[in-house]
Write a structure and sequence with these properties.
The protein is built from 5 helices and 11 strands; from the N terminus they run E-E-H-H-H-E-E-E-E-E-E-E-E-E-H-H. By secondary structure, the protein is α+β, with helices and mostly antiparallel strands. The protein folds into 2 domains: 6-106 and 201-239; 127-198, no CATH class. Strand 7 and strand 8 form a beta hairpin. Helix 1 (24-32) runs parallel beside helix 5 and helix 2 runs antiparallel to helix 5. The protein is rod-shaped and about 90 Å long. The model has no long low-confidence stretch (mean pLDDT 83).
């Protein structure tokens, strides 16, 4: 199985990265020529950054990972228990810092296939399964097991990763008919324990100053480019 997958409880993760405007020094000189307009330009840039940075980050992530847009939107600035959230922890003329905190995702957010239980149906011939007919007094039962199949997902864009043999699909909740179908694996010698398969979180896809991700440089480049454009635009408007 790819090292992108693991079984177990959802993990809470966090990550942060900073960006510095390449022309920050030059733009700062223009601020010196302004009075109240300079403060206005900075405030408007901060407002732009707060409103637009999640979309810039999303664009950078999707250039490297196969994650769906719904998962990235869920990782936005809305406050929601159990979901990934974004907090703008600082922004200035010289730079900005984004901090993400959130949970590891299941493969259904990464173009997982198949998406239905027993996609290939049941085997034609029944097989003896131990412990399936205890109520009848028999130690075994003759049942038609599911045909074997592989569960795959596109974690890294352009690459299909395969989960280990024995991965099966089942509802994530016995109480809700609309609950999503998730991949599960048995982690013991018997039928239990069973755990859902999980993979990267949004913070891990973003990376941090200490540990870069595949998308880190792309995200920083996109934010830098757009942040400088917005700042330059607000300065020009303030100088009129």
């Amino acid at each position: 199985m790819s090292d992108l997958f693991y079984t177990g409880r959802s993990r809470r993760t966090s990550g942060a990265f900073s960006v510095t405007m390449r022309d920050g020094a030059k733009l700062a000189k223009k601020l010196e020529k302004l009075k109240d307009g300079g403060e206005t330009a900075i405030k408007r840039t901060v407002s732009d950054f707060t409103a637009r940075a999640p979309a810039w980050v999303s664009k950078g992530i999707r250039q490297h990972y196969g994650v769906d847009t719904a998962a990235i939107k869920e990782a936005g600035p809305r406050s929601k228990r159990g979901a990934t959230s974004i907090r703008v922890s600082g922004v200035s003329v010289d730079g900005a810092t984004l901090e993400y905190k959130g949970r590891t995702l299941t493969p259904i957010h990464f173009k997982m296939s198949p998406t239905t239980r027993n996609p290939k149906g049941l085997a034609k011939k029944p097989a003896k399964i131990p412990g399936q007919a205890i109520s009848t007094g028999s130690p075994v039962a003759m049942v038609r097991p599911p045909m074997p199949f592989q569960v795959k997902a596109t974690i890294i864009k352009g690459q299909r990763a395969t989960m280990k043999p024995g991965t099966y699909l089942a509802s994530s909740s016995k109480k809700s008919a609309d609950a999503p179908i998730l991949p599960f694996q048995r982690t013991g010698a018997g039928r239990t324990p069973v755990h859902a398969v999980r993979t990267l979180s949004v913070p891990q896809m973003i990376g941090s100053e200490e540990k870069k991700s595949r998308a880190s440089d792309t995200i920083s480049e996109i934010i830098n480019e757009n942040l400088e454009k917005r700042f330059e635009n607000h300065i020009k408007r303030a100088m009129k």
